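Reply to dn_fold:

You asked what the input looked like. This is it:
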Amino acid sequence: LLDQVIAYSGRKIKAESVESVLGIVSGNTLETFVNQIIDRQPAALVKLTQEIVKQGKDLGLFCQSLMEYLRNLLIMKISNQPEVLLNTHNYSLEILKKQAEKFHSDELQVMFLVLTKAEMEMKRSSLSQMVFEMALLRLIEARPFKKIDELIEKINRAEDHLAELNQNSKIKT
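and this is what came back:
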């Protein structure tokens, strides 16, 4: 691989050359991608995916990079010293922190699972781009989990309120 990069770029090797030869996507593209997930822009995500494919990038590697990026966002949320645990080589810690604030931990975990499943399906499918695009649509729909106790409490309050309204309407008639 190093020989390929040298043949492609000459003696002075730049990150862009390595990305191009290996078919990997830059950190900036990942940041943009996650911003579009935050903004819930499905058409923009599909369009960016198509651009990535047109550039000859490997969607399987991109899916893995996106999974790593989501993992880094989760680490930013759960750690007091995330720098020690992060896999950051070309990501801005400030951007990761700002993006992490936009997500709930549950959402990031669900997104990671969606991408894990998509990556496995992409390996077996002749339509890997479509599999990836469908996974992106599921990412946008990820929401934080609601605790069952909170939901039960809301239902009970609504029932109590409804019973109270029924009592008041019976008294008036």
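The CA atoms of residues 91 and 129 lie 25 Å apart.
Hope that clears it up.
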